[in-house]
Amino acid sequence: MAGGHKHAAQANHHESPKMYINGYILSLVLTVAAFWLVLAHVMSTTPLVITILALATLQIFVQLFFFMHVKEGEGPNYHGMALILGAIFIITIVFGSIWIMSFNAQVQ
Length: 108
Hints:
Blueprint: H1 2-15, H2 17-40, H3 45-67, H4 78-107
């Protein structure tokens, strides 16, 4: 009975529109902030890129926790392990590409 109650509570938590609305509003705020920073020219290029990358990272976490429910569920945390592996792949691809492009620019 307790397991059924817990499952029902999780089902209600998934269906709560408040969580989706909060995630949607937070996503909009992060997107508008990045858009405004670019349009208003309030920073030089390097701080602007770093700020936009930070806002994009926050956007990823908002999507994962508010819409994809990464922390919810029972059993082993396969989602967490898959996310860590995916993050390693993405970091390797992005920084490897940047390194290769900067090396090519130095050679020419």
